């Protein structure tokens, strides 16, 4: 979906729900809100719909309130008590939640724009929603470094045992995520507006571009070489931190090197 089509669907959605007297509010989220960044050809539509209590379930279960598109709906799934997702035949995705006015307080959001407010107090209700997750505090660094060593150590062990998929999970997912959480805790972002409060993997190419490139390079290496790369990055990036343990790093390196040697 190109940017113009994205904007056209947003406008059509607003027109459709405004024509329904029982809809009390429409709140656009993420790139759909266009408050911090505009949608691109890969963006989906994220939004909250606010309706009276007796109308919530029909809006969650039914789809007749959505604007018509040339592409047909091929998938509709309720993924939470309030939320659902829709996929069209051309691959466009909607992720939305239907709340009653009192249920809006159960939501979490960072970038939001109210485009329909028949209650008259949606800004106040939205401001009172659950707070954003706190960014990883510096006090968590010792635990994160311990997690990183654990995931590298267990990962290469599983690789050596022949549990290759589990090894990839430990090293390419968990260990990389440990690095991303450490970045969040210790390295100021180059682009603070790009920080995703819920997902440390999002937009790292903008918040920490050089670190992102180095981490991505590890993902292209076979195991256990990728684990060695991540450990080298750890020594370079986090070695100066007081919580860094050189003996632990040496022990993990020995296991990585052993996992890379042919079995006798």
Please give a structural write-up.
By secondary structure, the protein is an alpha+beta fold. It folds into 2 domains: 3-127, Beta Polymerase, domain 2 (2-Layer Sandwich), CATH 3.30.460.10; 138-260. Helices cover 45% and strands 14% of the residues. It has 10 helices and 6 strands; from the N terminus they run αβαβαββββααααααα. The protein has helices at residues 3-18, 30-33, 56-61, 122-127, 141-161, 164-186, 204-207, 209-219, 225-238, 246-260, and strands at residues 25-29, 45-50, 73-78, 83-88, 93-99, 112-117. A 6-stranded mixed beta sheet has the order 3-4-5-2-1-6. Helix 5 (141-161) packs antiparallel against helix 6 (164-186) and helix 9 packs antiparallel against helix 10. The protein starts with a helix and ends with a helix. The mean pLDDT is 90.
């Amino acid at each position: 979906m190109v940017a113009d089509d994205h904007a056209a669907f947003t406008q059509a959605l607003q027109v459709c729900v405004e024509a329904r007297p029982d809809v009390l509010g429409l709140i656009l989220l993420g790139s759909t809100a266009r408050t911090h960044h505009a949608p691109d050809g890969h963006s989906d539509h994220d939004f909250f719909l606010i309706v009276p209590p007796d109308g919530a379930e029909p809006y969650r279960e039914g789809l007749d309130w959505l604007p018509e598109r040339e592409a047909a709906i091929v998938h509709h799934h309720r993924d939470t008590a309030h939320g659902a997702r829709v996929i069209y035949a051309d691959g466009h995705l909607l992720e939305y939640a239907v709340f009653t006015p009192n249920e809006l307080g159960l939501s979490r959001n960072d970038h939001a724009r109210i485009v329909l407010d028949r209650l008259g107090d949606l800004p106040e209700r939205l401001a009172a929603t659950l707070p954003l997750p706190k960014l990883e505090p510096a006090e968590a660094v010792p635990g994160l470094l311990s997690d990183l060593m654990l995931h590298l150590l267990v990962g290469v062990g599983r690789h050596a045992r022949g549990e290759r998929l589990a090894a990839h999970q430990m090293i390419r997912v968990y260990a990389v995520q440990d690095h991303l959480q450490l970045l969040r805790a210790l390295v100021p972002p180059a682009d603070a507006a790009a920080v995703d409060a819920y997902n440390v993997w999002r937009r790292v190419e903008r918040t920490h571009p050089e670190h992102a490139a180095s981490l991505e390079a590890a993902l292209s290496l076979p195991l256990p070489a990728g684990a060695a790369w991540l450990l080298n990055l750890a020594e370079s990036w986090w070695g100066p931190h007081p919580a860094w343990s050189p003996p632990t790093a040496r022990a993990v390196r020995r296991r990585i090197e052993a996992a890379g040697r042919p079995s006798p």
